[in-house]
């Protein structure tokens, strides 16, 4: 782990990013697992298998994406804790920021990735992944962030696989310029027939 980081004495290993810089979509996930540290590649092992199935559903391969993690090391116990997450994420950003800045679309996969990509560090209970998946946010830089679930989380709840694959297809539409935001309809006084 890196000197100056909260995890410098508690984190395990180091996993760099992988894939072409400037790829149309960068996959940003929370943190590596021990199998990734052992192999030295991001999103391999069990989470990588889930990612592979997501990519297969969208007819893509991992070589078409840049893959980055918010944290570069395995956190203690494999869990992210809110008391140190922001400091560790900001420290690790020095390694992932060049790749993220070079990509027009970031697919933020998981709670920590969403917080990092959108700058949501207040840990409000309403800022959960399920409230953000599938959303598209344009950043002041002109980049877009599409939110979804971390493949390591999906592995424990395979019912989310279709949702995550859909979110990935939204990211592909954004990257290809095919995505058009849906207009927001605001009805102040709906007709009673609407609610029956």
Structure description:
It is a single chain. This protein has six helices and five strands; from the N terminus they run βααβαβαββαα. The chain has helices spanning 34-39, 45-57, 82-101, 111-118, 151-154, 161-176; strands spanning 25-29, 66-69, 105-109, 136-138, 144-148. A five-stranded mixed sheet has the order 2-1-3-5-4, sandwiched between helices. Strand 4 and strand 5 (144-148) form a beta hairpin. The model has no long low-confidence stretch (mean pLDDT 87).
Based on CA inertia axes, which overall geometry fits?
A: globular
Strand line-up in the sheet with most strands: 2-1-3-5-4
Which H/E pattern describes the elements? EHHEHEHEEHH
Q: What is the typical, i.e. mean, pLDDT? A: 87
Number of helical stretches of at least 4 residues: 6
Query: What is the structural class?
Result: alpha/beta
The major sheet is characterized as: 5 strands, mixed
Low-pLDDT ranges: none
> How large is the radius of gyration?
17 Å
Number of strands: 5
Which percent bin holds the helix content? 25-40%
Strand content: 5-15%
Termini distance? 58 Å
């Amino acid at each position: 782990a890196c000197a100056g980081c909260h995890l410098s004495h508690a984190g395990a290993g180091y996993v760099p990013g992988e894939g072409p810089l400037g790829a149309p979509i960068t996959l940003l996930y929370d943190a590596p697992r021990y199998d990734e540290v052992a192999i030295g590649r991001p999103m391999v092992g069990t989470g990588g298998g889930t990612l592979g199935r997501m990519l297969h559903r969208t007819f893509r391969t991992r070589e078409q994406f840049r893959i980055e993690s918010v944290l570069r090391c395995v956190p203690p116990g494999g869990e992210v804790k809110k008391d140190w997450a922001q400091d560790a994420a900001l420290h690790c950003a020095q390694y992932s920021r060049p790749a993220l800045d070079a990509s027009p679309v970031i697919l933020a996969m998981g709670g920590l990735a969403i917080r990092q990509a959108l700058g949501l560090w207040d840990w409000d209970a309403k800022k959960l992944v399920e409230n953000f998946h599938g959303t598209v946010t344009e950043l002041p830089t002109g980049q877009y962030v599409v939110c979804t679930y971390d493949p390591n989380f999906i592995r424990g709840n395979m019912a989310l696989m279709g949702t995550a694959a859909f979110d990935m297809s939204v990211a592909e539409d954004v990257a290809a310029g095919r995505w058009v935001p849906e207009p927001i309809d605001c009805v102040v006084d709906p007709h009673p027939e609407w609610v029956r």
